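$ ./design --mode recover --in tokens.txt
reading tokens...
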């Protein structure tokens, strides 16, 4: 699951690279990304 979270985080960051703060939130809350 850890690898899946990293991949989903990278994909989300690539799709919407707005601010590094968003990336930190993604790392802190990978479950929300999986749900979204």
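writing sequence...
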């Amino acid at each position: 699951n850890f690898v899946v979270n990293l991949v989903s985080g990278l994909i989300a960051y690539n799709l919407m690279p707005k601010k590094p703060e968003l990336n930190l939130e993604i790392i802190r809350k990978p479950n929300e990304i999986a749900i979204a």
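exit 0
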